[in-house]
TrEMBL record:
Organism: Aspergillus mulundensis
Upper taxonomic lineage: Eukaryota, Fungi, Dikarya, Ascomycota, Pezizomycotina
Pfam families attached to this UniProt entry: Fer2 (PF00111)
Location in or out of the cell: Mitochondrion
Superkingdom to which the source organism belongs: Eukaryota
Family indicated by similarity: Belongs to the adrenodoxin/putidaredoxin family.
Bias kind Polar residues: ranges: 22-32
Name of the protein this chain belongs to: Putative Ferredoxin
Residue ranges of the region described as Disordered: 1-44
Listed cofactors: [2Fe-2S] cluster
Length: 161
């Protein structure tokens, strides 16, 4: 007697996207949002001031660990941060007004120095805002936003037709 294969009906699983009740990000790491800063706890405020391109001074109280790019963007100051704070551009270039305050900062990394070489209006006290993390030592720091930024992209180097 010949044996015939018989398929048994198995319940079909729902596609993975239908099994999830809440939307998930496509990244395994926590996403960073531009301009996301943590409000300082009472008594732990750090003061920082920005002088914008028009010469207007803006004073803020921030938390330890916030970076200058996020502080500026959270407060609607004109700082682009084209690379999202990954130290891959120079659009968050700032100039530290007080050389003594600049000396209290950690030395810039090689990557930061490479990007600073592309910055408009580079000075001896220039830094990338995304790389400057606020600390108690930097309380009272004043930074100036340069009058222009330089946003270089691959398309800038393609041959013109």
């Amino acid at each position: 007697m010949p044996v015939t294969a018989r398929k048994t009906a198995r319940p079909r699983k729902q596609p993975v996207w239908k099994q999830v009740d809440t939307p998930r990000s496509l990244s395994a790491t926590t996403g960073m949002q531009h301009g996301h800063i943590t409000p300082p706890k009472p008594g732990e405020e750090i003061n920082v001031s920005f002088i914008d391109k028009d010469g207007e001074k803006w004073d803020f109280q921030v938390s330890e660990g916030d970076n200058l790019l996020d502080i500026a963007q959270a407060n609607d100051l004109e700082m682009e941060g084209a690379c999202g704070g990954s130290c891959a551009c120079s659009t968050c270039h700032v100039i530290v007004e007080d050389p003594d305050m600049f000396d209290k900062m950690e030395e810039p990394s090689d990557d930061e120095n490479d990007m600073l070489d592309l910055a408009f209006g580079l000075t001896e006290t220039s830094r990338l805002g995304c790389q400057v993390l606020m600390s108690k030592e930097l309380d009272g720091m004043v930074v100036r936003l340069p009058s222009m930024t330089r946003n270089l992209q691959a398309s800038d180097f393609q041959a013109k037709k």
